[in-house]
Predict the structure.
Amino acid sequence: NAGVTQTPKFQVLKTGQSMTLQCAQDMNHEYMSWYRQDPGMGLRLIHYSVGAGITDQGEVPNGYNVSRSTTEDFPLRLLSAAPSQTSVYFCASRRKETYEQYFGPGTRLTVT
Amino acid sequence: AQSVTQLDSHVSVSEGTPVLLRCNYSSSYSPSLFWYVQHPNKGLQLLLKYTSAATLVKGINGFEAEFKKSETSFHLTKPSAHMSDAAEYFCVVRFTGTASKLTFGTGTRLQVTL
C-alpha cells in the first residue's frame, strides 16, 4: 500500500510555462484534494473531487485546473506559471465517510 | 464567520517538560476537529481527531486534546516532550455544513531543546 504518491518532488519553472503535478492513491478513496502551503498561511484548498468525473473549486483555484478520470489519479495543471504560484503543493485523499485525510509527501515548486 | 486560530506560531519547550499547543475555533455549532503534525520536508500526518464522541481524545505518540465547547477550544497537550516531537502542528476544523471542506490553522512550530 503506497498511500498517496506525488511526482515530481521538486520542480523549477519559468514564468509562463505550464506543467502537471501528478497525484495517485491506492486506497480506493472517493475524495481527493489539492492544497498549497505557504509560510504563515497553513494549507489552502485549491481544488477537490468527490469522485471520478466530479471536481470543484476550493479557496484559491485561479491559475489551476484539475480533472478526475479515475478514482486513483487527480492531476493538478498549472496553465501559465507565475511567481505567486511558488509554493509546496500537497495532494490528499480520504474516504467519503470520514474526514481523516491522508497526505502525499508534497511537491516543492519554484517559479522564476 | 467560521475560522480557526492557532494562538502561537512558535512554541519552545525543554525535553521532558509538558507541551501545550493552543487552538480556538469560531462557530455556532460543534465542528469536527483534528490535529495534524508535519515533520520537516514531509507530508501531514493525523495525530488525533474529535468527532462528537468523548471530549478528551487520545492520539499517537502520547498526544491528547480536549474539546471544550464553552471555550471553543481544542488544545493539544503532551505530558513530556521528546526531541522527536519537534515539528509543525496544524489544527484543522470541519465546520458543520461545509461538506468536504477542511479549514487549516496557520500552524505552530514546536521546538524541543535539551
Notes: The mean pLDDT of chain B is 90.
